[in-house]
Amino acid sequence: MRFLPFVLLVGLSQLLSGCAGTPSGTGEPSGSEYSAYLFTYFTGNAQADEQVHYAVSLDGYNYHALNGDAPVLDSRAISSTGGVRDPHILRGPDGNFYMVVTDMVSANGWSSNRAMVLLKSSNLINWTSSVVNIQERFDNQDSLLRVWAPQTIYDPAEDKFMVYYSMKHGNEPDKIYYAYTNDDFTDLATEPKQLLYTPDGGAAIDGDIIPFDGKYYMFFKTEDRGKGIKVAVSDSLTGEYAVGDDFVQQTTFQVEGSSVFKLIDSDDYILMYDMYTKGEYQFTRTSDLQNFEVIDEDVSMDFHPRHGTVIPITSRELERLLSAYGRPDDLIVQATAPEIRKINIRLDSTANELELPLLPDTDLSAFDPQFPEMAGLRITPAGPQDFTDGPVTYTLQLEGHEPETYDVSATVRNNPVLTGYYADPDVLYSEKTGKFYLYPTSDGFNGWSGTYFKTFSSPDLVHWTDEGIILDLEKDVEWADRNAWAPCILEAEIDGEYKYFYYFTAAQKIGVATSDSPTGPFTDSGKALIDYKPEGARGGQEIDPEVFADPQSGKTYLYWGNGYMAVAELNDDLVSLKPGTTKLLNPGSTYREGTTIFFRNGTYYFLWSENDTRDPSYRVRYATALSPLGPLTIPENNLVIQTNEEAEIYGTGHNSVIQVPGTDDWYIVYHRFNYPNGISMGRAAGFHRETAIDKLAFNPDGSIRPATPTHAGIRPVTPR
């Protein structure tokens, strides 16, 4: 999922009857009365993060945190432990809103809580609350260890609200129970009764029930075996639930806190769940609650939620929430024009200056940022404006707030060259197609945990087309399923046919896959090519392959290493190493990783990255040699590219180099921290990186001139 500023779109819908009731003070609404979505969530395992937060969306896909992503309720005031988790919100048939949360501070231990909190509101702003301690409230609960993830549903057959939740007693597994509330929604009025019986008696938590097609579907997590989300179906709310065999999550990451909501003005539903070890949510779309399509590329958030729920709200309710929790700065950045590089928007709150970076070829003389339109918000001027002469002044009027003016600039920028987070780029010019191709690491995953590779094509190094996934570790590789990093590519003409050899890192090993096309799909060789440390290497990892076809000898070499630089000759099959050819090269003490090699005017250039990719000072150095096997000569001034503080460009490293065919024009393709947010992300900047291209030039003696990283990037190039 992309964590971007949220995009406000139009056309929203009514949630499923029974999961969403009626707007406050009205009768049963028509679908058109809903105009937005409210997302309730918490943010983490620190006590300060175990609180209720709000976010809103106008399309169910793109969400913006309210209140600056600060809590909207004080956990200390509503709970017995000082923290709350797993907020579930429901609109009742009486027009009121009902919320239940786990009363828990995780720092006290995962089996430390006995209570939940019941909350009620008529306006989503003011809430009454009651703590229900199950152990104190009911008999025969002496062995109770924990009460987790309560949710509420209205039972029309009983005309009551039912709360269902998991409990663990002694050495027994977690089980999902239910009880009805009293009329005031301040207490549980009936004894807890087990609701779900798993076929093997195994643990079940995080139940989420939704009526569908005359039945009740319960999504829940199996906690102690084959962990994941399953679905149980019943003809009645409290009847027997038949548990399906299949897991429905569309990821291999661990998941919890699933929630289903219906899209407004649509028959489709969203199943979302918390990939808690990855630090992200995944969204899937379904029409039958059985088949689920991942839609993460369409989803954005400017916050990191944990275990939450979504309901539809009306325009008046959205206006009320914005009046209470909205901030002008939060709204002015929500320009939705498709030409905007949304993860690169920069707002200077002190100077009230907004910078909108735009995709190549955008017409600045008639550009419309498409600021949000919603009840209680007015931004002027509206429509296309002329940005060619500099910033345009906009006024934002939010109901309940003083007007704010912002100077908005719009500038075409060719860097980053790809939309989204991508790192470790390897670049190829294909003789077969006459196009350029980029092969990056798919970035933006906590701890570099991506599992797939993509490629992008371009006629000119500026305009890039996403060619899709070319190798998926989870589906295409048997020997590794994690840490898809730092690939490289070789185009080779064999018996008159072009073949492509794709060397990649997976699980800190190096593999190779082949294809007849630069856009794949690629077929893995079936085993790791390098899964050992070369003799003499101390420490480091077997990562970051670089392939080089020597134009002088006709031999092909593979380089790799982290903490050491290794090289070996490839056999003629290009998928195996020639025995006895592996050796270590000596690039000096600045070498960290990311070897790149190219040949120009009789000289072999060896480039590498210095420091840690999470370090703002991550940068590229070089050496030269008269042979692809060294020895290396390290110039006194050997910096190739480094941080440009004036432009706020940091962490410039792990590059490749491309020569435009038929010319002596050279370019460096590299990654850097996300602009402008990376420098404030801390260590997470090291896996929220972007790919850029800038000019690489040489002095008359062949030494490399230090390259300047830019936002403007390069002009389109034409091979000769």
Brief digest:
This protein is mainly beta and 720 residues long.
Helices and strands, with pairings:
Elements: E1 34-42, E2 53-57, E3 62-65, H1 75-78, E4 84-91, E5 97-103, E6 115-121, E7 128-133, H2 134-137, E8 144-155, E9 160-169, E10 175-180, E11 193-194, E12 204-212, E13 215-222, E14 228-234, E15 242-243, E16 256-262, E17 269-275, E18 280-286, E19 293-294, E20 300-301, E21 306-314, H3 315-325, H4 328-332, E22 346-348, E23 353-358, E24 377-380, E25 392-398, E26 404-412, E27 422-429, E28 436-442, E29 452-458, E30 465-472, H5 473-476, E31 485-494, E32 497-506, E33 509-515, E34 523-524, E35 546-549, E36 556-560, E37 565-569, E38 583-585, E39 593-600, E40 603-610, E41 619-625, E42 639-641, E43 653-659, E44 666-673, E45 689-696
Parallel strand pairs: 3-20, 23-26
Antiparallel strand pairs: 1-2, 1-21, 2-3, 4-5, 5-6, 6-7, 8-9, 9-10, 10-11, 12-13, 13-14, 14-15, 16-17, 17-18, 18-19, 22-23, 24-25, 25-26, 27-28, 28-29, 29-30, 31-32, 32-33, 33-34, 35-36, 36-37, 37-38, 39-40, 40-41, 41-42, 43-44, 44-45
